[in-house]
Amino acid sequence: MISVRLSKELEEKINLLSQQEDITKSDIVKEALEMYMEKQEQQTKPYDLGEEFFGKYGSGQGDLSTTYKTKVREKINEKMSD
């Protein structure tokens, strides 16, 4: 059970619609909430937009995030020894 405070204007619109359509106010609110929830679920998330590209152009070296300092140091040492 949930209680919701509505503006007078919205409450009047719901009352009018309830009378015109011969359905309960609760059914109107339930249907509106279901439609809202469906709309929210269908919205595209940023992750979904880029999902096909994540990892697509990887280096193939899965340890770069943990060994980058060592790799940088090796590159610097190579340049210094040239």
List the helices and strands and how they pair.
Blueprint (H helix, E strand, L loop, with lengths): L7 H14 L3 H18 L3 H5 L13 H18 L1
What does this protein look like?
The protein is mainly α and 82 residues long. The protein has a domain at 8-45. It has 4 helices and no strands. It has helices at 8-21, 25-42, 46-50, 64-81. The model has no long low-confidence stretch (mean pLDDT 89).
Global structural class: mainly alpha
Q: How much helix, percentage-wise, in residues? A: 55-70%
Euclidean distance between termini CA atoms:
76 Å
Strand portion, in percent? under 5%
Q: Judging from the principal axes of the Cα atoms, what is the shape?
A: rod-shaped
Spans of at least 5 consecutive residues with low confidence: none
H and E string: HHHH
Query: How many helices?
Result: 4
Q: What do the pLDDT scores average to? A: 89
- Strand segment tally: 0
Domain Ribbon-helix-helix protein CopG: 2-39
Protein name: Ribbon-helix-helix protein, copG family
Organism: Selenihalanaerobacter shriftii
InterPro entries: Arc_rbn_hlx_hlx (IPR013321), CopG (IPR002145), Ribbon_hlx_hlx (IPR010985)
Q: What key phrases describe this protein's structure?
A:
Arc_rbn_hlx_hlx, 82 residues, CopG, 4 helices, Ribbon_hlx_hlx, mainly alpha
Give a summary of the structure in a few sentences.
The chain has four helices and no strands. It is 67% helix and 0% strand.
